[in-house]
Write a structure and sequence with these properties.
By secondary structure, this protein is of the alpha/beta class. Helices cover 41% and strands 15% of the residues. It contains 14 helices and twelve strands. The chain has a ten-stranded mixed sheet with strand order 6-4-1-2-3-10-9-8-11-12. Strands 5-7 form a two-stranded parallel ribbon.
């Protein structure tokens, strides 16, 4: 995979930097107050590494550009971890010029990624004395059109002002790039955040962890992996694993305005819908913290809670923590609901293991034959039978479209 054609556009209120990653045009846009190095390919190297490993292609960066020497030195360890988790990610070589970056007085202060949710708000409160900036992204975890993006920016700006922090907004087509490669979001999650960290180059950048130390699973955003993306001048960390979701809310509730301004939803950033799984999980954590005044657009019903279905062992850990707390508080209504959720997940897992060990995966293979190619799961950190199929499909897309035309609808506060 070749990284070339870096281009920095300077406008009155924003800068936009772009590059070609193979056939894909990746770009980032942020405030003109942020200093962007026009010849530093480190952000694009972070974005390209996991897709290139998936393709099994070495990365070649044009000689007029450079990358962080420290980053390049740590790439073999990053690759070793990803390959160990899923062998579909092959270890590759990176051919690039390097520079040793030096911290400077003009670079941004200590920063943290923030989108208004429980994890980010918890880390903001806990580390408020050290943090200078909060970084909000459109086009990474979600791609919001203009009106919704403006609403989320206003919402996060409100929390930033509560703690006297500067909100920095970044816009990108990272999500489109990850989707085009056939990768799941958590296969390229930490690498994407690292690319924005090295683009902005603050003294430090904090990534908020979603789970606790005893529930860590392989993921592209991981407390062992995230710091490896650091450069000489920007130290990346993975914080917040000492507290589960209910414990995080227990801290946030001491800051009523921050609590009221939480956005925990998959839907409209102007409110919390009360219908999605994130709203339902948060509702249970709120109940276990004796918080009844938090506003959802729609009243949460216990009948809907019992239908929740964890998607992974990591997801299951959220419900297990809530279940233990519900038992401790003698909350029979919530503990009964959570017990059903956990039991249903474990019953399905037991059925899958029984099929694998006793039936030689007969049931699993039968289901696989019924799944159309467009319904296949994206490639993640855990290996699946469909990974090789997705890889072949990506090779076909590249062969048929030697230059990708970006069409993502990403709202901007800068245009």
């Amino acid at each position: 995979m070749k990284i070339h054609q870096l281009n920095l556009e300077k406008h009155n209120n924003y800068h936009k930097i772009s590059a070609m990653l193979g056939p894909f045009p990746l770009w980032f846009k942020t405030s003109s107050e942020c200093l962007i190095a026009c010849n530093d390919a480190s952000p694009f190297l972070c974005s390209a590494l996991i897709p290139a490993m998936f393709l099994g292609e070495d990365i070649v960066i044009d000689r007029q550009y450079y990358v962080s020497a420290s980053l390049l030195e740590k790439l073999p360890l990053i690759q070793t971890m990803m390959h160990a988790w899923n062998p579909i990610f092959k270890c590759i070589k990176v051919n690039a010029n390097t520079q040793t970056f030096k911290p400077s007085a003009s670079q941004l202060g200590h920063s943290a990624f923030f989108s208004g949710g429980v994890d980010g708000t918890y880390n903001l409160i806990k580390h408020q004395e050290q943090l200078d900036n909060l970084v909000l992204i459109n086009g990474f975890d979600f791609s919001m059109p203009q009106p919704a993006w403006q609403q989320l920016v206003a919402r996060c700006q409100k929390t930033a002002k509560l703690f006297n922090k500067r909100l920095i907004c970044v816009e990108s087509n990272l999500k489109e790039f990850t989707g085009w490669t056939g990768l799941a979001r958590f296969a390229n999650f930490g690498a994407s955040l690292a690319s924005i960290s090295l683009l902005l180059n603050p003294k430090s950048m904090a990534i908020s962890g979603a789970v606790t130390y005893d529930a860590i699973n392989p993921s592209n955003s991981h407390p062992l992996l995230d710091p490896l993306w650091s450069s000489e001048s920007c130290q990346i960390s993975h914080l917040g694993l000492e507290a589960d979701r209910a414990a995080k809310i227990a801290l946030i509730k001491h800051y009523p305005e921050a609590l009221d301004n939480l956005w925990v939803c998959w839907e409209d950033p102007s409110s919390n819908c009360g219908r999605c799984s994130k709203c339902h999980r948060t509702y249970m954590a709120l109940q276990l913290n004796n918080i009844s005044h938090f506003q959802f657009s729609q009243e949460v019903k216990f009948s809907a809670l019992s239908k929740l279905s964890p998607k992974s062992d990591e997801d299951l850990s959220f419900y297990e923590y809530l279940y233990q707390l519900a038992i401790k508080q003698h909350n029979s209504q919530l503990s009964q609901v959570l017990r059903k959720i956990i039991w249903r997940y474990r019953a399905k897992a037991f059925a899958r293991e029984t099929d694998r060990l006793l039936l030689h995966s007969v049931c699993s293979k039968w289901r696989q034959k019924k799944i159309a190619h467009h319904q296949l799961a994206d490639v993640n950190v855990f290996p699946k039978y469909s990974d090789a199929i997705q890889l072949e499909r990506l090779h076909q897309r590249i062969k048929q479209n030697p230059r990708f035309i970006s069409s993502a609808n990403i709202g901007s506060i800068y245009d």
